[in-house]
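Example record

The entry below shows one chain as it appears in the dataset: sequence first, then structure tokens.
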Amino acid sequence: MSRLLFEKKGQAIWISHLDLMRLFQRAFKRAGLPLTHTQGYNPRPSVSIALPLSVGVESSCELLEYELDMEQRPNHKEIVSRLNAALVEGVRVIHSYDNCAKLKTLAYLDATVDLEYDRGIPEGAVDAIQELFSRKEIIVEKKGKNGPTDQDIAPMIKKLEINAADANTIRLAVRVCCQNPSLNPMQLSVAVTKYLPQFAPDFSKSARVNLYNDKEHIFR
């Protein structure tokens, strides 16, 4: 299998994971890059995206694995060019490559979480949020397929920096676990609302920045 590194930004953040898969399947076809198909009763194109991204979250580091059904395949530079010509605005392939790291070694991701306040950052909010995320236990509710469960997010926060991005925005720059266990960075906003309701943001958003292996080296 080969792998793509791609970004999802702008209006494309509202494309769901399943629609993104379909988008890439059609893009490969339009680009004249036929995919192999899985075997069995219901064959599917050989594409898969690691770490499905929540709707509304942008990313600079998405990974897609693919396999082409071609005897003489184009080089990776041409694959990138042909795919980008067939994709929608906001979804852009950055790199295509072989010799991929094993997905089981993917362990951490860097992300930003912006807490936005319509009337400006409340006095004392930065210090209070800093203290919250220094606690040894931070329990928030996680929604799953089998219903909501309590999740302690504190052990899954590897690094965290807090600063005022502007007069209305507190930015959390975090490195969190993304596999076994995994933490959705937006849970940090949930924690602020639960434990510090006086500093609950009017709006919050998140962006993925980079991925790392279990040694905290950049994962590709």
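Notes for this example: Helices lie at 17-30, 76-86, 125-132, 187-195. Residues 159 and 175 are 5 Å apart (CA to CA).
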